[in-house]
Amino acid sequence: MSDMNAFRDAVTAWAAGGPGDPARELAGRLSVRTVVLLEGLSDAAAVGALAARHGRDMATEGVCVLPMGGAMNVGRFSALLGPRGLGLRLTGLCDERERGYYARGWERAGAGSDGVFVCAADLEDELIRALGMDRVTELVREQGDFRALSTFLRQPAQRSRAPEQQLRRFLGTKKGRKIHYGRVLVEALGQERPPAPLDGLLSAL
Q: Where are the alpha helices (DSSP H) in the chain?
């Protein structure tokens, strides 16, 4: 386990009611300067993949990418880590429907209103639009999931949804699939510019 993973785990335990001293000690020893607060593991996979594409090592730069297990936890994490807690810089990525959670969390933490990058629907939606439906469908085929996608699309509940919505729903139908495709879709961007929220987040770090 890397030291930054140890810091992430210490913060998560602290947010769950454990002691804060391990997180404080690691923050100082690792010279942590920024924490990227994300809803879940799929967002973290995408951010990590984009950083790797740009040859950046977030841990070496003092940046902790921290999935919180749900956007509603942002108030607790930002209070512990922000200006009124450990004094770290906060940034994050969220869906449009979660913007309010982040805004309130930032305010309570004394972090101002900057540093939150908002996806129109969610990050998968942003990546699907950046790559295009044909390319994403091709990637699903390359990953060995095309038969599962075809079965999913035959479900009556999917017939009224737009193709982009169908793909987004499919990516969330199996445990671990969103995490896997968070990385796959970012790595497939090639020369395409990353979605604006993801690009803005990385540029701000």
A: 3-15, 21-29, 41-53, 74-81, 99-109, 123-131, 133-142, 146-153, 163-171, 177-187, 196-204
Phi, psi of 18 (to 5 degrees): -80, -175
Name the residue with tokens 């038969």.
Answer: 147
Residue with tokens 């040859």: 55
- Spatial separation of the C-alpha atoms in residues 64 and 134, rounded to whole Å: 34
DSSP state of 135: H
- Residue 1 in this model has a pLDDT that exceeds 70: no
The answer to whether 192 and 186 have CB atoms below 8 angstroms apart is no
Residue pointed to by tokens 């804060």? 20
Q: What is the DSSP string of 32-68?
A: --EEEEESSHHHHHHHHHHHHHTT--TTTTTEEEEE-
Tokens of residue 173, six digits: 């139908």
Structure tokens belonging to residue 136: 């994403």
Tokens of 138: 């091709």
Q: What is the pLDDT of residues 134-173, one digit of tens each?
A: 999 999 999 999 999 999 999 998 988 898 999 999 998 8
| Helices 177-187 and 123-131: angle between axes, nearest 10 degrees | 40
Burial status of residue 83 (CB atoms within 10 A of its CB: 0-12, 13-18, 19 or more): middle
Q: Taken in order 166, 168, 173, 176, is the CA torsion positive or negative? A: positive
